[in-house]
Amino acid sequence: MEYRTGSIKRIFTARFDEGDDFLDGLRQLIIAENIRCAWFHVLGGLREAGVVTGPKEPVMPPEPVWAQIDGARETLGSGSIFWDETEPRIHLHAALGHHGETLTACVRKGTKVYLVLEVLILELDGIDATRPWFAQGGFNRLTFDA
Fold first, then answer.
1. Strands 143-144 and 101-125, bridge-based pairing
2. Residue 59 buriedness (CB in 10 A; 0-12 / 13-18 / 19+)
3. Domains with residue ranges and CATH for the chain
């Protein structure tokens, strides 16, 4: 385990509306505000998303099991934002519910908002971290610098 201590620098709140591409919009906000290190929470709905529901087997590197979410899903999630060498890497896990059935997954692509999705971003200060490619694991891994 590794850890660092920091504090909250800035707080952002954003609203995404019906049909918005959530991950693309979040990425645009991150770049526009130069958010380098943050945690965020989402609350609302998604109507589409490409998600990973876990590894096929518990090995490294993992082979992801993909699922496509279509139709309205109540959404509650938490994620992090750290950059690799050139771009922000968003890592979001969310519970996606519909009529009492819930799928928990890593939200990865093709996100379209259903009605509204509210986001709270807590930018961190004093933590020097990135998310470079981790070849052994086959994913971008949080790495503390210096």
1. unpaired
2. exposed
3. 10-127 (3.30.1330.80)
Number of residues assigned to the chain: 146
Contact 90, 15 (CB under 8 A): no
Q: What's this model's pTM, rounded to 2 decimal places?
A: 0.95
Residue pLDDT tens, the chain, 146 long? 999 999 999 999 999 999 999 999 999 999 999 999 999 999 999 999 999 999 999 999 999 999 999 999 999 999 999 999 999 999 999 999 999 999 999 999 999 999 999 999 999 999 999 999 999 999 999 999 87
